Amino acid sequence: MAELTHVQSEAHSPNLRHHFDDMGQQFDSATFGMWVFLLTEIMFFGGMFGAYTVYRSMYPEAFAATSNFMNPAFGAANTAVLIVSSLTMALAVRAAHLGHQKTLQMMLIFTMIFGLAFLVIKGFEYHEHWVDLKVPLFPSHWAWDGPNAPPQFAHQAQILFIFYFFMTGFHALHMVVGLGIMTTIFIMARQGKFSHDYYTPVEVSGLYWHFVDIVWIFLFPLLYLIGHTRQLI
Amino acid sequence: MDLQPVTPIRTYVLVWLTLTIFTFITYVVAQVDLGAFNVVIALGIAAFKMSLVIWFFMHVRTDSPLTKLFCFAGFFWIAILLSLTLGDYFSRTWMPGGKFW
After folding, report:
1. Distances in whole angstroms, Cα of residue A57 to Cα of each of A60, A171, A186, B17, B44
2. Fewer Cβ neighbours under 10 Å: the N or C end of chain B?
């Protein structure tokens, strides 16, 4: 009984789960586990990047022709927006760590606003493709009629646009999930669940948010920049 | 007890500034035709930006050696996946009569 009292008398955060030794070990385990999940995400997007590269080198001319229908200004604007959201996310984690509740909530709101801005810009871009008849998933919204386009380009360009929509679509889906996570974290922050000793959910959600940013950092050059100068049609 | 060191706001803002400047650089360079170097520069800048995000924003700089190792292992693994896949496709045409697929 005396020993039990001794254990209980140690400073013990209510946020410490019983299977961890201390808050530090719990924090390290959580971030480590999140990284293991992110590695599976790297594989998920990496497979698409690899397949895209193979098709791109198989159809270089058709690829260069499809680049004409990508607007690098949209891509660059979205990159800038996502990078700002990563900054506000990093500042949110910092504020959570320092126990600055108001700053934490404000930075989370900023992060969500920039995330939404990204999706709105992406929406305008998709709308442009829709009007340009460059959505191969919908036959009524697909046409390939460049003046100098060889007939086989139509089929090849279709494949490349499907890659474009899958890659940006899965990225946008991750953004939507990220916004859901941020909403949850914001509600938890409002309830005062985070403190200097316990802000693990904020840190781990931040890792996810930054990862989605990194995916876009690679999608931007691959889909918008490479081949942009070679306008064949 | 601190769960991780506190990074000064200045560092975060400097990282953000660097990321934004390099986004601008990669956008401008892409308007100039440099042949094969367009791809190299675009992906090189992307890799540099990724490293900044991972090292500073994702706190790998101050994470445990185990997390550092796993982060590195993830990118090492994707490098294997991409280099073997692309090595296969790109070398198929080297033999006489070889077809891409």
Report:
1. 5, 23, 44, 34, 19
2. C
- Digit-coded pLDDT (tens) for A47-94: 999 999 999 888 888 887 777 788 889 999 999 999 999 999 999 999
Full domain range(s) for residue A98 = 24-225
Q: CB A89 to CB B58 under 8 A?
A: no
For residues A114 and A25, what is the distance between their CA atoms, to the nearest angstrom? 33
Q: How many CB atoms lie within 10 A of CB A168?
A: 19
Report residues of chain B scoring pLDDT below 70: 1, 101
Distance from CA of B53 to the nearest CA of A (A): 7
Tens digits of per-residue pLDDT, A190-201? 999 999 989 999
**Distance of alpha carbon A80 from alpha carbon A114, whole angstroms:** 10
B57 to A38: CB separation less than 8 angstroms, yes or no? no
Q: What is the pTM of this model?
A: 0.91
Report if residue A62 sits inside a domain.
Answer: yes
Three-state SS at A195: strand
Is residue A231 pLDDT above 80, yes or no?
Answer: no
Residue A13 lies in a domain: no
A50 within domain boundaries: yes
Q: Answer yes or no: is the ipTM higher than 0.95.
A: no
Check A83 against B4: CB less than 8 A apart: no
Of chain A residues 196-215, which have a CB less than 8 A from chain B? 197, 199-200, 203, 206-207, 210-211, 213-214
| CATH number where A46 lies | 1.20.120.80
Mean pLDDT for the stretch of residues A203-219: 97
Tally of structural domains, chain A: 1
